[in-house]
Amino acid sequence: MTAVLSEFDIIARYFQRPPKTALLGVGDDCALVKAPEGVALAISTDMLVEGVHFFPDVDPSSLGHKALAVNLSDLAAMGAEPRWATLALALPAAEPRWLEGFSRALFELAGRHQLELIGGDTTRGPLNICITVIGLSPPGLALRRDGARAGDDIWLSGRTGEAALAVAAKRGTLQLPAAELASCEQRLHWPQPRVALGLALRGVASGAIDVSDGLVQDAGHLCERSVLAAEVQLDLLPVAPAVAAAGDAGQQAMLAGGDDYELCFTAATSRRGRIEDLARTLELPLTRIGRMVEGSPGVRVLDASGATLSLGRRGFDHFRP
């Protein structure tokens, strides 16, 4: 008969590691960390809930990766260097195979970004994952949503829309060819946080946000904080093959689908050459998709003729259909 894992067995077996930069890590009432003098702490929390953020049959390895990736994406959007994280985990049961896959992928991603898990909580309940990440940023170089200026270019890393199409395919509302479906599922389950880009944009970008709830909606938050309008050119947006094949549904996913974890950022026109150099150095497509303009905060998506597209849903909202 297999012994039942206790809460403390779970922590010790799957989540406890010797601290490297923390003064005190997992195993005490609190973790102890010391930030370098003159450096600000960037702190962000994200929660993933079964049935809301992921399907019940999701692979535990991809869930361990994604749970941390979405938090790292927030640090990337601030140009912050990842350093520490805490994990609060509610589990319906203590299943060793699930815990092994989840923790292994989480620590693999953490290791790539020199991030330490330093504490958290484990309890029994419906599957719920809440991670808090702590990063470091020189106060004057942090990327913020309120830094955009009229006339700035708007840039986008990577492409948007594929993850949303994977969700639609899973729900049975959209059919995709096998190759396109595989690409979309990879984007949904294994997002790559643009940490290196965020760090490289210090002193280059004027404003930034990560695209998690939909490009139009998230760019709108940047507009609100900078008290400016944005004009996005539809024909400039990078289009994935699956998005192109999906027609109108693909366009809606590209503009408002969510789960992309790319960076949308602004920069002065004089920075174009520098940003193009970054794209080559990082081997990451960076596309200029529009500009910031004076006007009431909000995003206008313009077609090739300059007409404003009429959009339905502009992004994901937990409390709106």
Structure description:
42% of the residues are buried. The protein is an alpha+beta fold and 321 residues long. The protein folds into two domains: 7-141, PurM-like, N-terminal domain (60s Ribosomal Protein L30, Chain: A), CATH 3.30.1330.10; 153-302, Phosphoribosyl-aminoimidazole Synthetase, Chain A, domain 2. Strands 6-8-5-9-7-10 form a six-stranded mixed beta sheet, with helices on both faces. The protein has a four-stranded mixed beta sheet with strand order 1-4-2-3. The model has no long low-confidence stretch (mean pLDDT 93). It has helices at residues 7-15, 60-77, 96-112, 162-171, 178-189, 195-200, 215-226, 241-245, 247-256, 272-282; strands at 40-49, 81-91, 116-124, 128-137, 153-157, 207-211, 229-233, 262-267, 286-293, 298-302. Strand 2, helix 3 (96-112) and strand 3 form a beta-alpha-beta unit. Helix 4 (162-171) packs across helix 5 and helix 4 packs across helix 9. The termini are far apart. The radius of gyration is 20 Å and the shape is globular. The longest helix is centred in the first third of the chain and has 18 residues, at 60-77.
